[in-house]
Specification:
alpha/beta; HTH_MarR-typ
Length: about 400
């Protein structure tokens, strides 16, 4: 299945009936977003709109600054075709990732490209100071746009763990410090800082959204998404729609058990205890190495690489077990793996997981294709930033909105 075929599953058809102007405009924008620059004839084919309707819509979208013409494509019989592309300057949004180790605040344009990035590293997020840091960064990004472009900001999307105060013993965080997050409404706290609409989504679900709409998810209809960060997590896409479940915890890979419980009645370890970057950070520190190397290419270079390999010897079979278990329950076309590390590290992780999958029996089930994620460490913040863009410009808001409910 090629990208254009798969993308058709992500978008509804347009309608040629009167009164459908805004919906059809969104359908056209979605077709371009999912397939890349397209000539008007191809847009008409993909959306099932008439050529005349597409012409009218493109004229309006050009006037609104949402699409622009690319250079004509020559070499075929007849007139050269002129691809229409999204205008990066047509709209902006802000994505906020609140993680257990860092804060990222990104300015994202209409094509989901990061224009500016403001970050803050910490041992654990303290709500007493974190929201002040967010307020300062929001003001900085708005000022950098200038008054005219700031009018094109359509909202803020926040990506954060559903339980920021959880697993404090594993992280070595004081219970009273973790408990500060128990009664905090993150969305409301950020909404009080701005007049822009604010949405909240689980961090790994946001990363999955970014992969679904702007990455490999455009060509894989049903997939399990694995994101390796301070804690490992994931998301589940079935028939090109993110399936969060009633509580938003579908695809919560980090909680999957590793084998059976102990003879003493102790519960089995969870995947996050073996396959999270928090574990690798501790291993680097114990070896007298800079733990920050988990986020860059040093992780696969001397002297970090021997420690990284030691971590992979436990992490890779554990992830493979989770993939095998998920495949026994779900019809998956693929498994997409990404994380908060370098592309070199991702390649090593994928190779190790693939080798670990070889050691499982696949009798009775189909082994899914293992794929590298295309977005990387910014996936959660970009996925958050796409919430307001989809709310304003996509035909199908049900693709992933209200995932925190």
């Amino acid at each position: 299945m090629n990208g254009a075929q798969a993308a058709e599953g992500l978008r509804p058809r347009g309608s040629n009936q009167v009164g459908m102007r805004q919906f059809n405009e969104r359908v056209v924008l979605q077709a371009i977003r999912l397939n890349g620059p397209l000539p008007k004839a191809e847009i008409a084919r993909l959306t099932h709109l008439t050529a005349q309707t597409v012409q009218i819509i493109i004229t309006r979208l050009e006037a609104d600054g949402l699409v622009l013409k690319r250079a004509p494509v020559r070499g075929k019989i007849g007139q050269p075709s002129v691809p229409m592309a999204l205008n990066p300057e047509g709209a902006y949004s802000i994505g906020i990732k609140i993680g257990r180790r860092s804060l990222d605040v990104l300015l994202v344009d209409f094509t989901a490209q990061v224009r500016e990035r403001l970050t803050l590293a910490y041992e654990f997020p303290d709500p007493d100071t974190l929201f002040d840091e967010i307020r300062v960064r929001l003001k900085t990004l708005r000022q950098s746009l200038g008054p005219e472009r700031a009018e094109l900001l359509h909202g803020i999307g926040i990506a954060a763990p559903l339980s920021l105060g959880g697993w404090q013993s594993l992280l070595g965080v004081a219970p009273e410090q973790a408990a500060k997050w128990n009664d905090i409404d993150i969305r409301a706290r950020v909404a009080a800082m701005t007049t822009l609409p604010v949405e909240l989504v689980k961090d790994t679900a946001a990363a999955c959204v970014a992969e679904l709409v702007a990455g490999r998810g455009r060509s894989v209809r049903s997939f399990l998404y694995v994101f390796i960060d301070t804690f490992i997590g994931g998301g589940l896409v079935i028939d090109s729609h993110l399936r969060p479940g009633a509580t938003g915890n579908a695809g919560a890979l980090g909680s999957m058990p590793l084998g059976l419980g102990g003879a003493d009645g102790a519960p089995p370890r969870q995947l996050l205890s073996a396959a999270s970057l928090f574990t690798l950070e501790k291993m680097y520190a114990q070896a007298g190495l800079d733990a920050r190397a988990v986020a860059d290419s040093r992780a696969v270079e001397a002297p970090w690489m021997p420690v990284t390999r030691e971590w992979m010897r436990e992490a890779s079979p554990a992830i493979a077990m989770a993939i095998h278990s998920a495949t026994a329950l779900l019809e998956l076309d693929g498994v997409i793996v990404d994380g908060s590390f370098s592309r070199e590290m991702l390649a090593e992780v994928l190779a190790q997981i693939d080798g670990a999958l070889d050691r499982f029996s696949w009798e009775g089930i189909a082994r899914p294709e293992l794929l590298a994620g295309a977005i990387g460490a910014d996936a959660r913040a970009i996925g958050g930033a796409m919430l307001p863009l989809y709310a304003n410009f996509a035909p199908d808001r049900d693709l992933f909105l209200k995932l925190d409910r």
